[in-house]
Amino acid sequence: MTHGEGAQRQTSTYQGRFAPSPTGPLHAGSLVAALASWLDARAWNGGKGGRWLVRVEDVDAPRCIPGAAELILQQLATCGLIPDEPPVWQSARSALYQQALDQLIVQGHAYPCACSRKDIEDAHAAQGHGRARHAALPYPGTCRHGLRGRPARSWRFNATDFLKNQPLEPVDKAHTALFSIANDTVHWTDRRLGPQSQQVTRAVGDLVLRRADGLWAYQLAVVVDDAAQHITHVVRGEDLADNTPRQILLQQALGVATPRYLHTPLVCGANGEKLSKQNGAAALDLRDPLQALGEAAEVLGLPALSQQKSLPQALEMWVNAWARNYNRPP
Ligand SMILES: [Zn+2]
Predict the structure, then answer these.
(1) C-alpha 204 – ligand 1 centre gap (Å)
(2) What is this structure's pTM?
């Protein structure tokens, strides 16, 4: 893939991003991730600070709500979280994703798949595998070695064969300790959660790159954009932690660097479930942004607002606290 975009920024030692999906306005949970990623950038290098970008992840167009992205950007601004450059929109970046898919096809790492969801369920049933409720089924590999005359619906990454032909060395030698790959398993170290691992073939199998409906898969778009934008540090909600091994594999296949990852605590609603737009989390009440930020800061284990502070003063206090907690030299 090319790295033309942002080439002038390659000398930056820290480039972070907040990447909301415009499926609704920010809620208390997404503000935690936004604040954490902003603080991590601002606290970098003893408070000298790195760069912080916002990327609108509107690649899953049918789930996006018109106007939600603009509202999110407005909410961030109300909280004093201002990106260092204009946001990019995934819906405008299809050519980059196509280029990456073409590269994977040429390298023999991607193949067309004819399976519907029902085909995949049937293949599992035929193998006598039960299905845990709500669990996504790993792809059984039906089309890995050919379509046998069936029409292609989607494109998949051949994680199975890719993993077989490893062990892999991290592309970025300076980050050697960040991850390793052995026996079908990706091991990686999260800055907050510590050592993590996932056997990708068992958990998800060969992942989709381009969906049957023609839309780009989230994993491909994220990996391509993080590379094109030279993202060095990803700070996002813990619900995305198990995406990391798939993204590391795609980074390896595409020959791009792996960022460092930090996954933030989730916010649970009264029912004990994680707050999300899907389970009807209320939009943030930002009539008092300091109050909302104070609650997000508490989730992150940052000091409470003990006295009357302005928004900039509060943010500065949290930047300093964050620098003590997380931004020690790697
Ligand atoms: Zn298939």
Answers:
(1) 14
(2) 0.90
